[in-house]
């Protein structure tokens, strides 16, 4: 019985699982922001390219 209590105390004192969850959440936020930035830059580049092609009077693809 004493070993079970000591096992639960050791598990309660272990913070490595909490740190793993925090770093995983932080990585998820960084990836979401990165994808948002890439999407916005891609849309901006497409608009600029279309504006350039229409200004030149050509059929760019």
Description:
This protein has 61 residues and is an all-alpha fold. The protein is 87% helix and 0% strand. The protein has two helices and no strands. It has helices spanning 2-13, 16-56. The radius of gyration is 26 Å and the shape is rod-shaped.
Q: What is the number of beta strands?
A: 0
What is the multimeric organization of the chains shown?
A: single chain
CA radius of gyration is 26 Å
What does the overall shape look like? rod-shaped
In helices, the fraction of residues equals over 70%
Mean pLDDT: 86
The number of helical segments is 2
End-to-end distance:
74 Å
Give a quick account of the main beta sheet: strands, pairing sense, barrel closure.
none
Can you write the helix and strand succession as a string? HH
Ranges with pLDDT <50 over ≥5 residues? none
Secondary-structure-based class equals mainly alpha
Beta-strand percent range: under 5%
Compose a concise summary of this entry.
With 61 residues, this protein is mainly α. 87% of the residues lie in helices and 0% in strands.
Which structural traits does this protein have?
61 residues, mainly alpha, 87% helix, 0% strand, rod-shaped
Task: Furnish the topology, listing elements before pairings.
Elements: H1 2-13, H2 16-56
